[in-house]
């Protein structure tokens, strides 16, 4: 499977049409290609080597992008036009679909509807040649439903080179232990994914809202292409959390920041640019990908959009202060990398 994907990446770089994935890649497998000049055309399938995320050529990769909001509460942005706009105007290289698995009206009650939202974002990301994280956005163990969801995503889309799985958004702190509770959950989810997708990245959460990466590093998961997410909110989390990240990196874990805010951990409150810049400097120095929370028009300071903003075509007046900061940061990074 990895060999086939590397061929596909090479063909995309030569602007050839496509190649067909290997037999057994899933009953709904389709031709794999990426538009010329896009992140997926440049990098192909990602993997983890020596604690670093690398591309099909063995070169380190840092993805930068945005996370969509809880899918049951921000469905208007789970659209092709939103993804198109984030790629063309914000210059994201990755997007995160936060498929809600908590609360009323979530995937726990409307499985097929939420699968369809994930599918829309995945297919839009594929068409735009960017990477897509599919996040089972839960704080508690819903293992049966999570396994069914991740199995279906892997069965349909596991052949794509741009797919990344996030099986558990933020395990809670109280009464949750990494080795006793969270690690066995991930082992079950990894097995379910690998039954259909043998090699795409799986980025796992840890207790304390995906901040106990140092504890996970003392008892890591076995298997290839497994990384760990580290979540932070800059106005709340400072150097002590980066110290936990450093400990995980020193132990050989590959990290991705699949969710962060430049505000407080509540998702609201004032923007802390001093702390945000310290976090960005740390992430960039360590080659750690990051995705900001979030694309929504909710009335809180972490939201990138003002209330009532349509799915695409946003002017500067449609953006919150957070949205304007993130758009500028993403566009500058893309320009530096030649996108």
TrEMBL record:
Any single biological process term in GO:
polysaccharide catabolic process
Q: Signal peptide span per the entry?
A: 1-24
Domain annotation Glycoside hydrolase family: ranges: 54-297
Q: Which UniProt keywords apply?
A: Glycosidase, Hydrolase, Signal
Entry keyword Nucleotide-binding? no
- Source taxon at top rank: Bacteria
Q: What does the record give under GO molecular function?
A: hydrolase activity, hydrolyzing O-glycosyl compounds
PANTHER family the UniProt entry points to:
ENDO-BETA-1,4-GLUCANASE A, GLYCOSIDE HYDROLASE FAMILY 5 DOMAIN-CONTAINING PROTEIN
Q: Which family does it belong to?
A: Belongs to the glycosyl hydrolase 5 (cellulase A) family.
Kindly provide the name given to this protein in its UniProt entry: Glycoside hydrolase family 5 protein
């Amino acid at each position: 499977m990895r060999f086939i994907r590397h061929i596909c990446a090479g063909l995309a770089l030569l602007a050839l049409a496509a190649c067909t994935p290997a037999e057994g890649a899933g009953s709904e497998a389709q031709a794999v290609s990426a538009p010329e000049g896009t992140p997926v055309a440049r990098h192909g399938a990602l993997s983890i080597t020596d604690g670093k995320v690398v591309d099909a050529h063995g070169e380190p990769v840092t993805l930068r992008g945005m996370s969509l909001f809880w899918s049951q509460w921000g469905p208007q942005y789970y659209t092709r036009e939103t993804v198109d706009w984030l790629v063309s105007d914000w210059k994201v290289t990755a997007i995160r679909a936060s498929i809600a698995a908590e609360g009323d009206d979530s995937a726990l009650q409307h499985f097929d509807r939420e699968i369809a939202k994930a599918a829309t974002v995945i297919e839009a990301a594929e068409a735009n040649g960017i990477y897509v994280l599919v996040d089972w956005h839960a704080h508690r163990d819903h293992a049966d439903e999570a396994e069914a969801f991740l199995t279906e995503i892997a069965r349909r889309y596991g052949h794509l080179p741009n797919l990344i799985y996030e099986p558990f958004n933020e395990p809670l702190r109280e009464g949750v232990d990494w080795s006793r509770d969270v690690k066995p959950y991930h082992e079950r989810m990894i097995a379910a994914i690998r039954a259909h997708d043998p090699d795409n990245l799986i980025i796992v959460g840890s207790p304390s809202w995906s901040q106990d990466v140092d504890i996970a590093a003392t008892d890591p998961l076995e298997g290839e292409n497994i990384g760990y997410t580290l979540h932070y909110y800059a106005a709340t989390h400072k150097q002590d959390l980066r110290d936990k990240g450093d400990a995980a990196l020193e132990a050989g874990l590959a990290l991705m920041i699949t969710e962060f805010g430049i505000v407080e951990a509540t998702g609201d409150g004032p923007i802390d640019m001093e702390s945000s810049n310290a976090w960005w400097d740390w992430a960039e120095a360590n080659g750690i990908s990051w995705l900001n929370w979030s694309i929504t028009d909710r009335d809180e300071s972490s939201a990138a959009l003002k209330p009532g903003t349509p799915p695409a075509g946003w002017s500067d007046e449609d953006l919150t202060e957070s949205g304007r900061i993130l758009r500028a940061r993403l566009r500058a990074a893309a320009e530096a990398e030649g996108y």
